[in-house]
Amino acid sequence: MKRISIVVLAFVMIVSLFGMNRQVQAAGFVDVPARALNEVNYLVEGKIVNGSSPTTFTPDKVITKAEAAVFIGRALQLNGTQRATGFPDVGMSNFASGYIQSAVDKGIVSGDKAGNFLPYKEVTRGEMAVMLANAFGYSYNNTVSGAEKALMTLGIASGLSNGTFGTDLPIKRADFAVFMARAINPAFRLKTSVNFTKPLWSTTGNLNIRTGPSTEYSSVGTIAANTQVTGAHSVGGWTYVKMGSKTGFISNYYLRSASSDGAAKPPATDSSDSKLSSQTIILDPGHGGKDSGAVGNNLREKDVVLKAGLQVNNLLKKTPFNVKMTRSTDTFIELKDRSAFAKDNGGDIFVSIHANSASSAAATGTETYYYAAANPHAADSKLLSSKIQARMLDAWNLRDRGVKPGNFSVLRENNMPAALVEMGFISNAGDASKMASDYWMNIMSIAIYNGILDYYKAKGYNVNSLYK
Prior knowledge:
- With 468 residues, the chain is of the alpha/beta class.
- 31% of the residues lie in helices and 18% in strands.
- The strands form five sheets. The chain has a six-stranded mixed sheet. A five-stranded antiparallel sheet has the order 8-7-6-3-9, with no helix packed on it. It has a two-stranded antiparallel sheet with strand order 1-2.
- β11 and β12 (299-300) form a beta hairpin.
- Residues 1-26 and 259-271 have low confidence and may be disordered.
């Protein structure tokens, strides 16, 4: 984005954000009104919004459904890859097709009763309220008035001078940007409405606290490994946190809810079956070290699956389950040593995490394998695989390649129910875009975690309180 001249920079407003004075980053637009300048610049910095040209934002233009889906999708790091959609009026070539389908899949927006999306329909203030309530998880009783009330209660929006919300009035791009920025970052809100209640700890040193939910945003400081912060809401795989006088965003990938690997597990209660504490789950991120696994679209399988494994591990650590990982760093481990590790640690189930690859870039989809040869765990292995597969399909909505028998070492040589999951194809641009997204990897990790819970629920365990 082109920067404005030094002369204009001298007149840019200074705002106080995140506990420190910070000069507004000039977006280069000459037509943004003062009432929306800080918020538009904030979203431009994060590459969430863009102008109609390098110098114009067209703030008074009414925003369309397609534009709204793009802005929300970028903020939440949804899959924006242009692709076929479920709507006859949104073709693959539509600039917003990927974000529209992703937003529909997440229940943020929807089509009309005739099955059309109407991408160029102008958005009203009431429709904006519903979109933002859906996108950011506000409770609103599924009514437009409820969504409007939620935004006003949080200080994200306010009513008009006539005492109404202006439900049926069209909303301009500038106003949509203002409300978006307020939803993302409470520092922009009309009143204090953020509650820091969740204790979290950093998993790595020199970790940036950023002004927004992506690496596009600048850092307000760094923290050391195993430092406690307090979290509020999450946006696209990032959590808004507070540490001392600093507030900002940290990627969920680098946060955990226990201060150390040896932290005590929560005690079992009536709502989380006490038998769970006797169950050990083995997580096996495939490949590692000198074995990169499949490579494609600037990604390495060993990195992708380790990220997923660590995220699932962090989720399981919040439960009464015992959880062990065959590797938690970029380390090479022989296949025979993976199953040996599972046996030595008294594993009750084994889940190996992988990404697929094919010579054809068109190959896509999710599949899960189990060892079907005669052994006492074949039925349970298939059950475990089926439960995880169902959750993964719901998470990424890729082609269902099925639950299949597989003669893999980590399955064949194990003595417990075992599943090998292939999240998607690293060789496929669409699948790989999800693997490159913090948001989508978090969704997949939750899916694998919930699939494991589904297996235990099917086996008669009480896990209802543990679902994410």
